[in-house]
Amino acid sequence: MMLTEAAKQMPEQISEVIVLDPNENCPATQVGAKQILGKFSDKNAIVELSLQSDLITYEIESGNTEILESIKGNITINPSPKTLRIIQDKYMQKKFLRENGIPVTDFVAISSIEELKQKIDSFGYPTLLKQRRDAYDGRGNFRIENSAHISEGYSKFSGRNVMLEKHVNFLCEISVIAARNTEGEIEVYPAVENIHKENILRMTIAPARISKQVSEEAEQLAKKVMGAFHGAGVFGIEMFVTKDEKILVNEIAPRVHNSGHHTLQSSITSQFEQHLRAILGLDLGRTDLLHRTVMCNILGPKGLGGKCKSVNITQNDGVYVKWYQKSEIKPMRKMGHFNVVDVNDNMDIQHLISKADEINDSITFNMNQ
Ligand code: ATP
Ligand code: MG
After folding, report:
1. Is residue 67 part of a domain?
2. Per-residue pLDDT reduced to its tens digit, 264-308
3. Residues 204, 138: one domain?
4. Pick from 159, 109, 99, 102: which is nearest to 130 by CA?
């Protein structure tokens, strides 16, 4: 949706946006995109999309890389399907990062419960069992707290490839949004801090509450990550800051990222415009943070489901709401987000966080009768 909105601001370069999406009247169509209805893995739909387009990009990792690889001779696809293929498998991704000298936590592929039991001994508790593919918002993660948890965790992912990861006792989670254009130019946004609850991103604090030295290190590390992967576009690079202020990369998203939504108001160039500039081979835009900003996701509340019209949210000075217009609300579904921006540059970050918390607590939804 937000990529489509950014594209509509670039009529000289982009005449039309066509989205492939499995949901009828998906958010992008509400802001002017044409839709091909189909699964992200649907071969015919992807081929149809390629016939109607000059350039393909994506904002979700679920594309079928085999089909994308097979059509890439006829159309430009960015980031490259090769990059997508590595990233789609969390184990392959971590292995690739480690081979490229990027610091990550210890991890190992698991193919049997015996192997799991054996490896847990060296990783200790708690530890994370992760589904290797098709996982997001923490849905593919299982935290094993003690030996009694092992078989529950293993059976949760039965029939799927899994990996085990050493738990990182982190000080905070941060991310860096980075971009590379087709000319090889790289730009990174300042590191932001991410607060997750129940594995879902709730809040992003821009800038992160870390020292200048750590944030510079994070930005350097992001550039190193960009050097390792092929293809143009925006990448979201998730990291942990450990208690001794070391940085480990958690994972990479080869696309615009939830923790970059603050850039819609906090920066001259939003991550969405930046992504389009990158894949079109334009000069990248400025990435400095103009105003401190806190972003909160608007999630479907527990126990609420059904058709939803709109959201009620306090919209006072410096509050910007983005409602994704998804017709159906589900518990923990990302329905939109809001940014609380320090427009007059006179609030400290704690004040912004409190303001965001208050707004979040007062949200209600208008359901269709
Ligand atoms: P998302 O879609 O939000 O990126 P995901 O499903 O891809 O999530 P991860 O990023 O692997 O899953 O993990 C989700 C969250 O779980 C992390 O942001 C972090 O809070 C926690 N987590 C994951 N791996 C570890 C680890 N090794 N040690 C400690 N916490 C972890
Ligand atoms: Mg993640």
Report:
1. yes
2. 999 999 999 999 999 999 999 999 999 999 999 999 999 999 999
3. no
4. 109
146-205 tens-digit pLDDT? 999 899 999 999 889 999 999 999 999 999 999 999 999 999 999 999 999 988 999 999
CATH number at residue 134: 3.30.1490.20
Instruction: Decide if 83 is inside a domain.
Output: no
- Is the backbone of residue 90 left (phi > 0), alpha (psi -120 to 50) or beta? alpha
Domains of the chain: total: 3
The CATH number assigned to the domain holding 8 equals: 3.40.50.20
Q: For 89-121, how does the pLDDT look when each residue is reduced to its tens digit (9 = 90+)? A: 999 999 999 999 999 999 999 999 999 999 999
**Is 167 a pocket residue for ligand 1 (Cβ < 6 Å)?**
yes
How close is the Cα of 137 to the center of ligand 2, in Å?
Answer: 7
233-242/247-253 β-pairing: antiparallel
Q: Is residue 302 part of a domain?
A: yes
- Atom 15 of ligand 1: nearest residue by CA position: 199
CB of 135 within 6 A of ligand 1: the answer is yes
330 with 344, same domain? yes
Ligand nearest, relative to CA of residue 87: 1
Asked if 129 and 263 sit in the same domain, the reply is no
Residue 143 forms beta bridges with which residues? 128
Ligand minimally distant from the alpha carbon of residue 199: 1
Domain span including residue 134: 106-166
Which tokens hold the place of 310? 């709109």
Q: Whose CA is nearest to atom 19 of ligand 1?
A: 199
Q: Is 201 in the pocket of ligand 1 (CB under 6 A)?
A: yes
* 4 Cβ inside 6 Å of ligand 1: no
Are residues 206 and 308 in contact, defined by beta-carbon separation less than 8 angstroms? Answer: no
> Which listed ligand is nearest to 88 at the C-alpha?
1
Q: Is 251 in the pocket of ligand 1 (CB under 6 A)?
A: yes
Contacts of 278 (CB under 8 A, 6+ apart): 78, 179, 180, 181, 182, 232, 233, 234, 284
CATH number at residue 357: 3.30.470.20
Atom of ligand 1 nearest to the CA of 138: 6
193 Cβ closer than 6 Å to some ligand 1 atom: no
